[in-house]
Amino acid sequence: MMCLPLGSIVEVFFNIDIDTYTRQTKLDELQDLTLSEVETTSENYLPIQVPPGGFYLALDCHLKRLFVLFSDPYSLLYGPEVGKSVQTQFRENITDYASINPPSVPNSRRHKEYEQWLLENPDLCFRPESRCGVFHWGLWTERGHESRGPVITPDTNQVGARVRAHQHDLFTSFRNISYLKRFLLGAIEKSQRDEMQNTIQSLRPRYKEPWCKSNTECFSLRACLVNLLTQPHLDCGDVEWAMLAPFGNITGAEFCIADIERRFVF
Length: 266
What we know:
single chain, three-stranded mixed sheet
């Protein structure tokens, strides 16, 4: 028996078998489109409104989990007041760190319209508090050097002494988010959560100590996008689950999942 919060939505996609599904097919349709063409395509997706306190769950034809969206996970775990405080403090910590150590501006196909987008949105560039770019913290496998195994990212270990103290405080502040991610991932798929957590805890200290400040951490890499426009793309080498969390003030946009052709208002 499963108890669902009022307003939660469970949808089964009988045309998708996650074990044989090729994600690249849908991705190929989007990658050659301009940003405006992608937006036009997404307008044909079915809109989904998840009420506060509820969630949306997509299942494949064998009832395996494809995608989960929680409408307000911070209130679910911490309560409304504390949950809002956690989000606000996290956003302020990122803003402060980015003002001390601005993120790098990416230069790849994933961000091919980024410069034009910034020109059309100058308020994201020129105000003193504005920063644009991406941080990668934790471990990753360098593209083209997969045989070397995972290494600590440059954003994690290639910072000066002045920034290092601020970075330590920032990573320590991630504990509330790490605990929340662990809680949600356990609700989605506990066995996968436990495997991911055990893998990180078994890392040698020199691979773990620079970025992991919680014994409940489940993810070895954090990508922090600051005012960053990203083209549709597929990350390679990930385990089964990844998590996304917005922390800024986002207006005039929807969260779109092309594989199931759904768009979510948030």
